[in-house]
Design brief:
Distance between the termini: 66 Å
Strand order of the largest sheet: 2-1-3-4-5
Structural class: alpha/beta
Radius of gyration: 20 Å
CATH architecture: 3-Layer(aba) Sandwich
Shape: globular
Strand content: 5-15%
CATH superfamily: SGNH hydrolase
Number of domains: 1
Low-confidence stretches: 5-19
Largest sheet: 5 strands, parallel
Helix content: 55-70%
CATH topology: Rossmann fold
Number of helices: 10
Length: 268
């Protein structure tokens, strides 16, 4: 009987592990199609801006997103449920203007790669097509939590990034990683980001404060996707609202309730 009980327990653990692995794979499988979508969309948006200018048409509001897999939308039920397209849709309602979204984020990005790849890509677009964004958002730091960089080196990377970002970027700190070493590390990175973002006159989106204020069980299971790492659709709605509430007063536009905003319709 004892052997049977042990076998049943081991089987349950194995089955549970397989379910968790399948759920994590479901999110991981979003990586490539989401990336391909944004790459094609970016090219289409840039080409349409150029064509419209040649035809004498005014620019739309140009919104550029920088960041990691959260900006890509991984973990959402649908790509358009990510916080970036939900913010783009909200900006249209707030301003009454069409919104051209250029999403330069990369899944797996860390602070140095935003600086060396995404900021450089934005500068290339500005130089080649004379496209200057009206709004820039940046979420970064979550993937840096797992790297054991000394605080001095992390501060060096962060201050280089905030110095290179377009003036007035809306940049987020790192969401809560809960208690334990990773949680402490996330808070350390957030403190560094806030310090240098303030120095360089960027606008802070306080993801850390919002996520750490939630009960731990609710945060883990109601605000995360099936891999228990990436945000889910519910969480991304709240993320988008944080950006909306910060951006509105800065640009002199009324804020909106993101939950009431229709899904983003690609401009190009």
């Amino acid at each position: 009987m004892k052997l049977r009980t042990v076998a049943v327990g081991a089987g349950a653990v194995l089955a549970g592990g397989q379910v968790m692995a399948q759920r994590a794979k479901k999110v991981s499988n979003q990586r490539r199609p989401f990336a391909r979508y944004w790459e094609r969309s970016n090219l289409d948006v840039i080409a349409k801006i150029v064509r419209n200018r040649q035809a004498g048409l005014p620019d739309p509001l140009i919104y550029v997103a920088l960041g990691d897999s959260a900006a890509q939308g991984l973990g959402a039920t649908d790509l358009m449920d990510g916080y970036v397209p939900r913010l783009a849709a909200s900006l249209k309602d707030m301003t009454g203007r069409d919104v051209a979204l250029i999403n330069l984020s990369v899944s797996g990005a860390v602070i140095p790669s935003v600086l060396t790849h995404q900021v450089m890509s934005l500068r290339g677009i500005q130089a080649d097509a004379d496209i200057v964004p009206d709004i820039v958002s940046c979420d970064i730091g979550g993937n840096d939590v797992g790297y054991r960089l000394q605080p001095e080196l992390m501060a060096e990377y962060v201050q280089a990034l905030t110095a290179a970002l377009p003036a007035g970027t809306f940049i987020a700190d790192v969401p809560s990683f809960g208690p334990g070493p990773h949680g402490r590390r996330a808070r350390e990175i957030s403190t560094i980001i806030r310090s240098y973002a303030d120095r360089d006159s960027h606008h802070m989106i306080d993801l850390e404060n919002f996520t750490s204020s939630l009960p731990l069980a609710a945060y883990l299971f109601r605000y995360h996707s099936t891999d228990l790492f990436h945000p889910n659709t519910h969480a991304y709605q709240h993320w988008a609202q944080l950006w909306v509430d910060k951006i509105g007063p800065v640009i002199g536009a009324p804020t909106v309730d993101v939950a009431d905003v229709a899904p983003y319709q690609p401009w190009a």
